[in-house]
């Protein structure tokens, strides 16, 4: 009796997904007057939390004291909430919504979580240094033909290939 075939999950067609992202970006420009981005939402949440927890500190800081819309009116916060809800809905509709740690056959669960947290922290620091995240720089900046955005896209792919070389044994 042959061994059972490995279960292969179906995902969206990458070309169709790319066209969809392009249409969402176009709609964002037309309806909101700005492109996509995510890291600014974290700035808004941090500013709101600081203002709520320490109003005197927020008032003394020029960046925090600047007029900022409430979180319910901030485009980036609403966008990020939509991404979270949309991702969960998509996973639910595709039958992939479950609590699991995606990892290769040679990676321990805790190692994978530690690597994911470290990668997230590095991406966050990189977004602050680059003055934008992959969606803001890569999608919006790339769509507007920004030279800095295209340099970022090349650097991001190069870093991804370099990082994969470091963790390849865990995934194969």
Characterize the structure shown.
The structure is a single chain. Helix content is 70%, strand content 0%. The protein has two domains: 13-99, no CATH class; 103-172, no CATH class. With 172 residues, it is mostly helical.
Global morphology? globular
SSE succession: HHHHHHHH
| Estimated structural class | mainly alpha
Mean pLDDT: 83
Oligomeric state, counting identical vs distinct chains: single chain
Main β-sheet, in a few words? none
State the helicity in percent bands.
55-70%
List keywords for this structure.
2 domains, 70% helix, single chain, 8 helices, mainly alpha, 172 residues
Summarize the structure in short.
By secondary structure, this protein is an all-alpha fold. The protein has helices at 14-32, 39-53, 55-60, 62-65, 75-93, 109-130, 134-143, 147-171. Helix content is 70%, strand content 0%.
Indicate the topology.
Layout: H1 14-32, H2 39-53, H3 55-60, H4 62-65, H5 75-93, H6 109-130, H7 134-143, H8 147-171
């Amino acid at each position: 009796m042959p061994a059972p075939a490995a279960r292969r999950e179906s995902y969206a067609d990458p070309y169709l997904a790319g066209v969809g992202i392009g249409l969402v970006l176009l709609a964002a420009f037309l309806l909101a007057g700005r492109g996509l981005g995510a890291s600014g939402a974290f700035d808004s949440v941090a500013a709101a939390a600081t203002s709520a927890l320490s109003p005197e500190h927020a008032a003394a800081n020029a960046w925090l004291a600047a007029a900022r819309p409430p979180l319910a009116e901030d485009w980036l916060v609403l966008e990020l909430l939509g991404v979270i809800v949309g991702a969960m809905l998509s996973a639910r509709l595709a039958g992939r919504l479950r609590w699991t740690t995606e990892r290769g056959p040679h990676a321990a669960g805790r190692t994978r979580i530690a690597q994911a947290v470290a990668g997230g922290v590095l991406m966050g620091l990189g977004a602050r240094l680059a003055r934008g995240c992959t969606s803001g720089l890569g999608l919006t900046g790339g769509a507007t033909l920004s030279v800095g955005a295209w340099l970022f896209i090349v650097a991001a792919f190069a870093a991804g290939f370099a990082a994969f070389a470091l963790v390849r044994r865990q995934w194969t």
